[in-house]
Amino acid sequence: MVNRLRTSGYRPQTNGAIEVWHRTLNGMLAKVIKDNQRHWPEWVRYVTFCYNATEHSATGFSPFFLNTGRQPVWNVDLLLPMAEQAGVPVTDYAVRVADRIERASELAREHLQQASESASKWYNNKVKPRTFIVGERVRVFYPRRYAGRSPKWQSYFKTEGEIEQVLNDVTYLVRSRSWKQSKVVHVDKLKRVENFTP
Q1: Does residue 9 contact residue 183 with C-beta atoms inside 8 Å?
Q2: With respect to CATH, is domain 137-192 assigned 3.40.1130?
Q3: Rounded to an integer, what distance in angstroms lies between the CA atom of residue 47 and that of residue 45?
Q4: What angle do CA 18, 60, 52 make, to 5 degrees?
Q5: Long-range contact set of residues 122-127: C-beta below 8 Å, sequence gap at least 24
Q6: Furthest-apart CA pair in the chain: how many Å?
Q7: What's the rounded Cα separation, in Å, for the pair 44 and 22?
Q8: For the segment 32-55, what is each residue's pLDDT rounded down to a tens digit?
Q9: Phi–psi pair at 168, nearest 5 degrees
């Protein structure tokens, strides 16, 4: 089952899995490229292979194994005899691989569920829930920087808008006069417009 996830601007946590992958990829590339950083495309295939062949803490398996039902072939494997698969009929081998993939997928789902519950518990301990209603005036986080201005003195919540639609518990569709069209905004990037009377 696939659930559609609508991401919002300035909220990389929405796509946490891909953000972790980008961080890992950049960290691995930093270990192998030269100081001028011009030949990084040559290393992407090798870094990606190593990443896919490494066991992930969330699933307990490497991505390569989950996709193919076997471990990748390394240089040393080409030098050693493949006695394990000698004389095995193709149909029997295919059945074994299918069984391995099915069992590994079940275990990976269980591990992912445990990792998800752990991350959810950790996040919920720190979160302070806020809700907005349709038509409510809000200020929207917009971290634009200007040359010659100190970011420490800058207000990033100057953009005002109005809640147009509640998409889910943490995501809202916001309309603003300064935008051409409405935008999806995470609740963490919204502040209620407060009116103070003297």
Answers
A1: yes
A2: no
A3: 6
A4: 50
A5: none
A6: 89
A7: 12
A8: 888 888 889 999 999 999 999 999
A9: -160, -165
Confidence of residue 198 (pLDDT cuts 50, 70, 90): low
Residue type, position 84, single letter: E
- Domain boundaries along the sequence of the chain: 12-126, 137-192
197/119 Cα distance (integer angstroms): 43
* Cα distance between residue 55 and residue 195, in whole Å: 54
CA distance readout (Å), 82 to 68, 69, 76, 97: 18, 17, 11, 16
* pLDDT tens-digit readout, 102-152: 888 899 989 889 988 888 888 778 877 889 999 999 999 988 888 888 888
Is the Cβ–Cβ distance between 163 and 186 less than 8 Å? no
What span, in angstroms and rounded, lies between the C-alpha atoms of 138 and 159? 8
Q: Residue 133 in contact with residue 163, Cβ under 8 Å?
A: yes
Q: Structure tokens of 49?
A: 């292979």
